[in-house]
Amino acid sequence: MKDEEPGNPLGIGCRMSVLRIVFLADTHLGFDYPVRPRVERRRRGPDFFANFRQVLTYARQTFPDLVLHGGDLFFRARVPPKIVDLVYADLFDFAGEGIPFIIVPGNHERSILPASLFLNHPNIYVFDKPKAYEFILEDLKVCLAGFPCERKAARVKFSALLNSSGWYEQDADVKLLCLHQTVEGAQVGPANYTFHSGKDVIQRQDLPGDAAAVLCGHIHRQQVLGDPADPRSEIPPVIYPGSTERTSFAERDESKGFYEIEFAQTKGSWGIQRLKFIELPARPMEDLHLDGKVTPESLGDFILSQITVMEPDSIVRLKCDPKTDPEVISMVTSKFLREILPESMNYQFSVEFRQRLLDGN
Predict the structure, then answer these.
(1) Contact 260, 42 (CB under 8 A)
(2) Which has the closest alpha carbon to 200: 216, 184, 223?
(3) What is the mean pLDDT of residues 339-345?
């Protein structure tokens, strides 16, 4: 666990001393979870479900005031009914604990969650359109406003969407903006690519200054934009919890988890008192490079020598280069890999490797 302490002391005489929110995003449930698998092998789908359920268990044990999911609950828009039922059954069961669970539909869901009677639970709230939800916690008024992921020209549409949510009509002690978007300054990938412009990149200067924070999904790397400890800033901090599992090799070195956020009153206004990033298990990812020195005769021994130094539950990516023997490429079939790799490992092919397979080596 990593604590980030902005250092704001608790306000004196406030009606509710601390507002606590559990914030997760980008669970991508259903990824590599075939309903009728044709081949029996380890799948990654259960890892995604396990981490999602671990967050729910944490919330059950600590009983926060609210739980927010920042979008991409599912891994795509069209999800098999069995997967939908598995996810919503977990949500419905959790909602019975009495803790409000709020969801921002993401881009992978094409901004619309699959319909289900499960979503009718009074403790489940969905930003199916621009709107604001008001919660009265003891005598503290909390407003969460937002809209489903805007996938076309979010930069120019942002002000209108914010206005449509009813943000400016809300008079609350704590106002939080909930999004599933790319915000200027967010970073991704091993090269730390930073978003500065683009039709779908929201400018930080356009964010409402009266927001205690912007809670945002979509970017898979955990990060905080701005300084939550700076009360002088007119731009609210943007918090990305990141995805709850590694979805690609671009995330191989990233920690995965969720945030527990505490808001408190200081000098008459509410802000972030404490950020705690809670790490979840993430499968290691390793490259296995077949270069020009690997021969058909040595292929099996070479792969075994490489995987013996890897964690047994690694996700292995097969890579090659132009000098790799075409016969070696042709030997590396799914059947061959299932026979030589431990059952606890997953494998995938790099783009170059897959292309050479398609091109006939």
Answers:
(1) no
(2) 184
(3) 93
